[in-house]
Amino acid sequence: MDSESEAPLTPQPPPPPAPKKQPFPTWKQGFVLCLGGLGLFLSACFGCLATLNGRGNSTNEALSTLLGILALVGAAACAIGGVFIFIRMISALFAPKPKP
Hints:
Blueprint: H1 27-51, H2 61-93
Helix pairs in contact: 1-2
């Protein structure tokens, strides 16, 4: 028998514990989505209104329509971010308190 090919069998250390998962949604996700949606809404709304002349006629129909749709998408994203923040607040309110 070749003594070099046989290594002593030593037990492997246990793997490190898995990190605790952050519950969905996180505070950051909610705030980023809400603020990003608000920014998109405000900028697209301003752009849409800037393409309209005083009587509601658009100087560029396609651009005005696109910016109006983007304003709606931004408002929806801001609302979803607000719902995420609300869900996080409710889950933090009813989360079990750690024992000292």
